[in-house]
Amino acid sequence: MTEQQPVAVLGGGSFGTAIANLLAENGQRVRQWMRDPEQAEAIRTQRENPRYLKGVKILPGVEPDTDLDAVLADCELVFVALPSSALRKVLEPVAGQLAGKLLVSTTKGIEALSFKLMSEILEEVAPDARIGVISGPNLAKEIADHALTATVVASEDAELCSRVQSALHGRTFRVYASQDRFGVELGGALKNVYAIIAGMAAALGMGENTKSMLITRALAEMTRFAVKLGANPMTFLGLAGVGDLIVTCSSPKSRNYQVGFALGEGLSLEDAVARLGEVAEGVNTIKVLKTRAEELQVYMPLVAGLHAILFEGRTLAQVIEALMRGEPKTDVDFIPTTGF
Ligand SMILES: NC(=O)C1=CN([C@@H]2O[C@H](COP(=O)(O)OP(=O)(O)OC[C@H]3O[C@@H](n4cnc5c(N)ncnc54)[C@H](O)[C@@H]3O)[C@@H](O)[C@H]2O)C=CC1
Ligand SMILES: O=C(CO)COP(=O)(O)O
Q1: CA pair distance 107, 6, nearest whole angstrom
Q2: Which residues of the chain have pLDDT under 70?
Q3: How confident is the model at residue 338, as a pLDDT?
Q4: Under DSSP, is residue 156 helix (H, G, I), strand (E, B) or coil?
Q5: Residue ranges per domain, the chain?
Q6: Residue 52 contacts by C-beta under 8 Å, 6 or more apart in sequence?
């Protein structure tokens, strides 16, 4: 009998580790690449990722490794769980090894200057690879703790979707498929910005009405933006849209929410990010999103408000006042009325 081919996970953070463990639980051999040899050694010897996923037992099927060439040479299915700021840098030097691979991005960010989503970078770096994404309401710690969870794998490549479904589906994890890679991935990137705002609102002790208003108007704003870019608004009604928005805007486990909470407590952005010590993609996304929304002339008052607080010296009180006193609008204004 031939030995089963391992699956690669690139990234030694909380999400890479949670996905690696999930794959191992389903009987897959996993080669998890990370850049930090000390972290790899800790996983190898202590069977724990003490910095990013403390308290979670890492299964024997997960083999940590710092040799990216060796990991890629061994695996066809590759989950890319790197921060958006690192993905291109890590993969460009090994581009020659990526042809024919199934590359699945789990990264919820947007590249600063190009405004590219991560799967678009993968396509650029590896034009002969098969590309997909996974996204959804997927807090890493909850996945690792076996909270019942669902995600979406999105790709035009139906065979890739079913490979990912069978690799990840399990007792506590369900994987839905979608052909709308762009919409699914965009939802995951945009919601991080609103989670920062939700964290701020929580720190200010705002009530349930306020939280609900925020989440619903965030959905309107992100869908309006997505429609302008040609995305299918219906995708935003699914797990990777409203599903992820709800979890990230409601949970103190979300790192973006935590940054917002710290800002609401009066910390500077720099201190809030330093206190977190992990990736909060929304901090970079807000910068590019504000510029892009202006270029495309999409009305995004929450994005503009957060940007004004973080980078234009406006106070929270001034922004809240401006948002509440803005001109009256209609409610559901973001779904095109033709074609229904
Ligand atoms: N943690 C979560 O609950 C979820 C995270 N994601 C996404 O997964 C992506 C990765 O996030 P996490 O694993 O949560 O981050 P994390 O903050 O837990 O860990 C980041 C990891 O990336 C590594 N890293 C940073 N710069 C690097 C570089 N230049 N080269 C190689 N490795 C580098 C760090 O050493 C660390 O291992 C993010 O885009 C995030 O939005 C998606 C779903 C859930
Ligand atoms: O994307 C996530 C949950 O779906 C994780 O959110 P944070 O990156 O804010 O922790």
Answers
A1: 21
A2: 1-2, 337-340
A3: 61
A4: coil
A5: 7-179, 189-325
A6: 12, 13, 14, 17, 278
**Architecture of the domain made up of 189-325:** Orthogonal Bundle (1.10)
Annotated active-site residue in 54, 57, 116, 191: 191
Q: How many CA atoms lie within 13 A of 143 on its CB side?
A: 28
Among the bound ligands, name the one nearest to the CA of residue 192: 2
The answer to whether the beta carbons of residues 20 and 32 sit under 8 Å apart is yes
7-179 and 189-325 in the same fold: no
Under 8 Å between Cβ of 87 and 73: no
Instruction: Give the atom of ligand 2 at the shortest distance from the alpha carbon of 138.
Output: 4
3-state secondary structure 278-293: CCCCHHHHHHHHHHHH
**Is 266 assigned to a binding site?**
no
Question: Is 157 annotated to bind ligand?
Answer: no
Strands 30-33 and 173-178: unpaired
CATH of the structural domain 7-179, one choice from 3.30.360.10, 3.40.50.720, 2.60.120.650, 3.40.50.300: 3.40.50.720
The whole-number pLDDT of residue 29 equals 98
Give the mutation target among 9, 10, 15, 194 for probing the ligand 1 site: most ligand atoms within 8 A of CB: 15
Residues 6+ apart with CB under 8 A from 57: 47, 48
Separation of 83 CA from ligand 1 center, angstroms?
4
The interface predicted TM-score of the complex, written ipTM, equals 0.99
| Maximum alpha-carbon separation in the chain | 70
- Relative to the alpha carbon of 251, which ligand is closest? 2
pTM value surpassing 0.90: yes
Contact 20, 30 (CB under 8 A): yes
CA of 110 to the centre of ligand 2 (A): 14
Q: Look at residue 328 in the predicted model and tell me its pLDDT.
A: 86
Nearest residue to 104 (alpha-carbon basis) of 239, 236, 11: 11
